[in-house]
Structure formats: structure tokens, C-alpha cells
Amino acid sequence: MSWRPTIRSRAETAVGIILRTPGLFIIEYWWRSQPNRHVLQAMDSQTNQFWTNFITHIALINGFLLLLLPIPLIRLLYTHIVCGALLITAHLLSYYLVHVIDAYNGVPIIESLALSLVQMNAIKQISLLVVHVAIAVIVSTLLQGPQKPLLPVFARIFDFPAESLQVIHKFSSAVVVISLIRYVYQWLPKVFSELKDACCQLLSATESQGLASLLVWLCGKLFVPTHFFLFWSIAFIRKLYETTNHSNDWYVAVLSAASAVCDSPVSLFSTAVAVTYMSYFLLSAMKFYLWGNCRQTLPNAPNIQQMHNGWEEGMTTFLLALLTGITDMKQPARMAVLTIILFVVLSSLLQSMLEMAEPVILSLSAYHSKNVVHHLKVLVLCAFLFLFPLHVAYVLSQIFPVDFWLAVVLSTSVLTSAQVADLVIVHCILWYDSLRAEPLESVDEAVYYVRAFTKIVEFFVATSVVVVGIWEAVIGQWSWTNALILLIHCYFNVWQRLNTGAKSYIRRREANKKTSSLPSATSRQLKEHNDVCAICFTDMSSPNASIITQCNHYFHRICLKKWLCFQDRCPLCVTCITRRNQTTQLVIN
């Protein structure tokens, strides 16, 4: 059947994710062990330092191998890791059999206590024998090389002397080491051959496609979102289990667990990936709520689906966390900073929801004039997008003192509510215009003034954030991070808004002057012309509503005014349209 390959491929993908994710845990463990390395080196001897460094670096290499190797080689690597752990376990059990009771000889109280706790009866001896046999069978089957002798177990069962037990234990360990050396000697040529082939393939790929392709391949192998999301989920659940015993409030426990995870670069990137996935799920639910099963019938639906995929929120989380240095903070400062960052991300998420809802709301008069349920559903969403940011701003102002970062969050929330109000008012104007038998001539002016008022509110709110940032710099509570964010805010949210608003006002004023200076078409001219407006494709019957350009083309006055707000040339012949007095002056010259 057709669904079987799909299920099998998904199962293989899931198994691959599960097998590769431990590599991230190994890399994070290596990273966390680095700050304490100098303390351990001061306490341990030189030999212990060498073996500690050797083991940690071998673990780091294995972590990267788990992320880079193909699945068959990863399975082989896991097989060797499991067999190595089993051999170490067998060695420890053998050491336990030989030394655990003999260490207490000569001390009556300790000896009696040890005999009561670790009594070598027949059941325990048989159990240990079964464990050793199972380990020997598993290792011999999986690797087909190293074997685990059972001599120490039989020697303990037959009650050999302590000296003989130690000799037998050392002999068995030597046999295992020799067997391992022989196995490694057999596999070394194959390993070097595989490494040689891999290096040759990488060199040939680099020569043919360039170094950039190699870096892209490495990034694609190392930074897989599903691996980081599974890594974050496991780490978050573990931290949440640890913090639930110390906190009664669920939201405090969740924030504490989420902030406790952000203590290394690996976990910080995984947190950003988790935010991306959560944002994607919320935005997908939003898309389904707005469009349902008829997404392709609405305007700009494919573009909106590609734009809002959650990566903007994830990158915002990662960049803000890097700028604030959250990995170097201690609790509860880390939890407070993460809370502010999450509120910034929430504001960005609400803004994305508003951008998704805007084309749907504006198209209600054309696409859903009879669907009252859909109309009410979208208006309920608008009410939520208007009230929830204000509630978030109020809660934040009650919890935290107002500073620059909080001002950024509050301004974003207020702007979202203002834009929602602007969108609803514009929708009401367009809805009223669609219900009329004849369109309103002043509807464009009304929409323009509503949008202009909203832009003025946005400008003043953005300016208030600049005032807060400058005030913090004056009183000495500034930092390079705040200065960088303030510069970015001044350019994008203040200067660009001011520049865009000024250009829009100048263009509209010029369009009004040009259309006012052009002559109106008479009834006789319209009857002789007997055509529709080339911009809106509707009939031109009203004399005062139609005008004639210098190139002798007929348009609606309102349609041409809208056109001239974006470009100053005729829609039909691309002739530059100027004011009438300017045209006369040009002719005289």
C-alpha cells in the first residue's frame, strides 16, 4: 500500500533523530566541564589529568561523530559504545567478586556488617554468573572479537583463596585487554580506509563546488532543528521535574526550568529552536483559524504562509539572549531576563498574527459579505489582538520597573493595539462603502486620515522609547547593548517612519494639486469618448468625477489621484502628468 513507505520513512527519520540527539548532550557536557577543568587539575595528579583530558576529548569527538556520520555508521558506533560499557561493567563486577568481602577481613564489626549487606549466597552467585554469561554472549555476538572470561566467577563459586582470586582476576583482565588490542588491530585498516575515502570525497567536493558548499554541508549536518528541539524538550522536562518540588506556581516553575536550560551555547540555540517551533505551531493554528480549508482562494495566502513560519521569533530570542549574556547570569537574574525576552518575542508573535489577519479583514467586504460566522470570527480575533497586548503591557508595568527594555516591550504592545484599532476602523469604512449603491468619493480620504493618525501615534510611541533610552544614558544606567538597540530603534522605528510619512504626505499633496488643476470632462466629451476608466474599469458617466490629462486620456479623478500617489506618469501612455499651470509654462518656454 502507498502509506507503508511513508510510515517507514518517517519511522527511519524519527530513529535517526533519536540516535543523533545524544551527540548534543555529549557536546554540552564537554562545554560545562571546561570551566571546572582548572579546579580538577589542581586536585588530581598528572596521570589523572591526562586520562581526564583524554576521555573528555574522546567524548567530544564521539559527540560530533553522532551528528555527522550516516545512520549505518552511527549504529556501529553505538554498538561499540554499548559493548565497551558492558566490558567495563563486567570488569567492575569481577573486581567486586574478588575484593568486596576480603577488604573487611580482620575487623569483626565491619566484617559482620559487610557479610549481612553483601552475603555471597548461592542465589547471588548464580545471578552474577548469569550476568557475566549474558555480557560475554552480547559482546561476542555484536563485535565478534573481544570476549569476557568467566574464570573469576567460577573461582568465587568454588571458594578459591583470596590470592588465587586476585591472580585469576588479573589474568582475565589481561585476556580481555589482549582481545581488545587484537580487535582494534583488525579494524584499524578499515577505519583508516574509510577516513581516507571520506577525506578524498571532501577534497574533491571542495575543489569542484568550493569551500562555501563544504561549510553549508557542515552547518546542515550540525544545526538540524529537530535534533535541537528534542534536546531542549528532554532538558526542559528534567529541569521542570527538579523545580516543581521548590515552587507552587506553575508559571514560576516553567520560567525557572526554561531559564535553567539556557546555561550553554548549545542549550541557548536549542531554546531559540524551541521558540521557533512553538511560534510555528501557533501561527499555523492562526492560519487554520483564519482560512480553514480554503487558503488558496484568499489573496496573498501563499506569500503569508511562507513569510510567517516562526523563524523570526526564534532568531529574535537567540540574538537578544546573546546581547544580554544570559548564559553567564545566575538565578534569579537569568529568569528575569528570559521573561523580558519572551515578552519581546510574544509582541513580535502578535505582530505577525496581525500581519496575517490584515488581508483577511480587508477582504471581508469582497469575499465574505454573506458569511456572518467568518466575519464574527475575524472580529473576535481583532478584539483579542487589541486587548491582549494592553493586558500584557499592564502586567509588565506592575511587575518590573520601567527601563529601556521594558519600554521596548510596552511600545510594541501599544503599537499592536493601535494598528488593530486602525485596521478595524478601515474595515468598517470599506464595509460601509461596499453596502452603498454608489461608492463614496471621500472613502479614500477617510482611510488616508485614519492611517495617518495611526502613523502619528506610532511615531510618538517610538519617540518615547528613545526618550527613555537617552534618560538611562544620562543617569548612568546604560550599556553598549542598550546603545546598539537604541541606534537600531532610532533608524528603523523613528527615522524610517518619519521619512516614509513625509514622502507619503508630499506625494499625496502633489497628487491633489495635479488632479485639481486638470480639466473636468463634460457630458458631451464623455458621450463621445464612450469608454471606461482604464484604472478601475468602471463606467464614466458623471462629468465632475472624470478628468482629462494633457495626453487626452480620460480617468476618474479619484482613481487618478490614487495612481499619482505612487507614480507621476499616465497609466496608458507613460507621459509625465504635471499641473496645468506648469504645463502652460512649459509650452510658453
From TrEMBL:
Source organism per UniProt: Oppiella nova
Annotated localization: Membrane
UniProt protein name: RING-type domain-containing protein
Lineage per the UniProt record: Eukaryota, Metazoa, Ecdysozoa, Arthropoda, Chelicerata
Pfam families: TRC8_N, zf-RING_2
InterPro entries attached to this UniProt entry: HRD1_E3_ubiq-ligases, TRC8_N_dom, Znf_RING, Znf_RING/FYVE/PHD
PROSITE patterns to which the protein is assigned, alphabetical: ZF_RING_2
GO molecular function: ubiquitin protein ligase activity; zinc ion binding
Alphabetical GO biological process terms: ERAD pathway; proteasome-mediated ubiquitin-dependent protein catabolic process
Keyword entries, A-Z: Membrane, Metal-binding, Transmembrane, Transmembrane helix, Zinc, Zinc-finger
Coiled-coil regions, chain positions: none
Membrane spanning residue stretches: 51-69, 76-98, 126-146, 214-238, 250-283, 335-357, 378-399, 405-432, 452-471, 477-495
An example Gene Ontology CC term for this record: membrane
Domain annotation RING-type: ranges: 533-573
Domain of life: Eukaryota
Bilayer topology term: Multi-pass membrane protein
